Amino acid sequence: MNEERLYRMIEEKEGLVSLAFPALMRKVYVWMTLALVITGFTAFGIAENPGLVYTIVTNRLLFWGLIIGEFALVMAIYGAIGKLSATAATLLFVLYSIVNGATLSVIFLAYTMTSIASVFFITAGTFAVMAFIGYTTKTDLTSFGKMLMMGLIGIILATVVNIFIGSSMLNMMVSYVGVVVFVGLTAYDSQKIKNLLYQVDNMSEEAQKLALLGSLTLYLDFINLFLMLLRIFGGNRD
Q1: Where are the domains of the chain?
Q2: Is the Cβ–Cβ distance between 183 and 208 less than 8 Å?
Q3: Which of 137, 115, 237 has its CA nearest to residue 186?
Q4: C-alpha–C-alpha distance, residues 34 and 140, integer Å
Q5: pLDDT along the chain (238 residues), means of 10
Q6: Using CA atoms, how far apart are residues 148 and 128, in angstroms rounded to an integer?
Q7: Cβ neighbours, 10 Å, residue 192
Q8: Which of 221, 191, 199, 197 is nearest to 23 (CA)?
């Protein structure tokens, strides 16, 4: 009798995992997609108002305020996720998507609409392939991920240095390295998110916040990959 009860409990738990896991994974990609849509519409909407986008470009205080605001929002979501409700964390993610869209609106001044659209679809295709590989591969990408994080730190440092020296060659080198790093991070993060959510056996608020963090991580991978590819393939305006 006890043995039958034990087997029934195991079957029930496995059933919960099979139900919770795909639902949480769907949330990861749905939230990520919605965030990209919000960012895209915000960027395009601001770009359609020349006065507003030029204000962002020429007003250094406003521009850097947006950059710092983005950084603060990401840190708030990652750092305080345990204290935030799922609703509050989602609203912060939406706010971040809007602020990031405002910052990205300046790309419409530097690149043609055709090149932006083309690079977006290239990014989407590349991202989808690498996310699929990360999700399905049996190879543990943990050690690979550590090397990619070192590469990411190098990109950040080189970008900061280039703000002061303004080297076009260094900018292009960072872009090529960045493509490799964010392509790899897409696969690595996809596997990491899958492994984390596979251990969750319910649809609790904590589980949904974990899925939200996963969507934010993949959103950042996508945006950064897009920007790196845009630097390489984007057609500049005359």
Answers
A1: 2-233
A2: no
A3: 137
A4: 29
A5: 43 51 90 96 91 86 90 90 89 95 90 91 95 93 89 90 84 91 95 89 84 95 95 73
A6: 19
A7: 17
A8: 197
